[in-house]
Amino acid sequence: MxxxxxxxxxxxxxxxxxxxxxxxxxxxxxxxxxxxxPVAQMVPAVLLVDLIVTLPLVASSWKQTDxxxxxxxxxxxxxxxPCGYWLLFNLPDIALKLLVPSTVLxxxxxxxxxxxxxxRVARSPxxxxxxxxxxxxxxxxxxxxxxxxxxxxxxxxxxxxNSLISYFFLxxxxxxxxxxxxxxxxxLLPDYPLLYTVxxxxxxxxxxxxxxxxxxxxxxxxxxxxxxxxxxxSMSRVIWTLFS
Length: 244
Known about the structure:
mainly alpha; 11 helices; about 80% helix; globular; membrane; transmembrane; TSUP
């Protein structure tokens, strides 16, 4: 019962953030669920939910997407996704439980870095696309590299958000399809998958409506710090387990 409540709260918060900011759903959900369930089962399940709840967002963003900016990213992302799945299905669960928070934490810190070297890397669609690909399929946290890349693009904020939504939709489609092709099964969230998906979908729509009513930069900052806090907690828990 407690795990069910935790999943519902997590999906509600992550869904709202996804609808409001256009990203962050999978990373937030996998950080919490990986503490309870095997990572290799949860990553494909979370990506499937992410794909479904993205549908109402991509319907309104598709025509406002700059596909010329996305094309090089998409190509290398689809190369990176199989690499991430190799890690997901071959590393032991304890290694994956450590890889999830450490990757999310590193990407979150990099996204706020002012390093000249990192800024140059962030402007490379090939590197950002590949990094987004393997982190999507390995730890369900492929948003940060592309968000960083978009930040340094010439697109305005509105175009960036719409392009990100379409990018995540296309890459998640490929990731979910690749998972099925490799395992010949669909991974679902435990116990009440339909209920969880509906809750996440409603939260996404609420977040989208709130963004359309008023865009607050403070909520974007709050989502960033929430990712940091959850990453530190998850990493500390795994390290404690290893050495206790």
